[in-house]
Specification:
- It is a single chain.
- The protein is built from seven helices and three strands.
- By secondary structure, the protein is mainly alpha-helical.
- It has a domain of 103 residues: 3-Layer(bab) Sandwich (minor pseudopilin epsh fold).
- The protein has a three-stranded antiparallel sheet with strand order 2-1-3, sandwiched between helices.
- α1 packs antiparallel against α2.
- The longest helix is centred in the N-terminal third of the chain and has 30 residues.
- The site of manganese (II) ion has 7 residues, from α1.
- The site of manganese (II) ion (MN) has 7 residues, from α1.
């Protein structure tokens, strides 16, 4: 095990997970250049920074570092750990061009129909939520295991409005880096394109972990 993956003081480090397709796998909907920068610079950056902050936390735990802003360190750690987890979900929540899009099936389809009336109504509302999310953030479909609701939510930045214990079923990145090179300020066009990439099998699998 490399030093980077070592466990220090019980704190595990993070690893950049592999992309489930090639960098050009999402074309033409999301360009190779976007995926390359998004994965190899942004996502990798969150993983590397999270690991540096874990080292920092270790030195704080061991009282090697006496002067620190714990709130600031934890806030940054939260941003970067969530950055890793959100992006891992985002990548796996899409599939190669030609294999994604369309409509979900199985229990997820039944639950969407029951709660939203139809898939088309759900898609329109999720799109509206994504397009109305200010600034940087994410549109997410969460499953609330407490009452069985599939809740459309928007996460601001990497963590604000993010509710614990509500697993993510469907997720789209709305940071400018996710679309700007290709779509400029036309975020709605990116959202429209993204629908063609959704991996509903992954969404169902994510949900299935929480269904009896
Ligand atoms: Mn991103």
């Amino acid at each position: 095990m490399s030093e980077e993956n070592s466990i220090v003081n019980g704190l595990h480090k993070y690893e950049l997970p592999p992309l489930p397709y090639k960098v050009d796998g999402l074309e033409p909907f999301i360009s190779k250049d976007i995926v390359d920068i998004h994965y190899n610079a942004h996502h990798k950056g969150y993983v590397n920074t999270a690991n540096k902050l874990i080292d920092r936390m270790n030195s704080i735990i061991k009282e090697e570092e006496k002067s620190y802003d714990l709130h600031g360190v934890i806030r940054s750690l939260t941003f970067n750990i969530n950055g890793d987890k959100l992006h891992t979900m985002y990548w796996n929540n899409m599939t190669e061009q030609g294999k994604g899009g369309g409509k979900p099936g199985g229990k997820l389809a039944d639950m969407i129909d029951r709660q939203y009336g139809s898939f088309d109504r759900f898609k329109a509302l999720f799109t509206e939520a994504a397009n109305s999310n200010p600034g940087t953030g994410w549109a997410v479909l969460n499953y609330d295991a407490e009452n069985g609701n599939l809740q459309i939510m928007t996460v601001e930045n990497h963590f604000m409005n993010h509710l614990a214990e509500m697993p993510v079923v469907l997720i789209v990145d709305e940071f400018e880096h996710a679309y700007y090179l290709q779509y400029k300020n036309k975020r709605p066009d990116y959202i429209t394109a993204w629908w063609n990439l959704v991996n509903w099998d992954d969404a169902e699998k994510r949900l299935g972990k929480y269904l009896e």
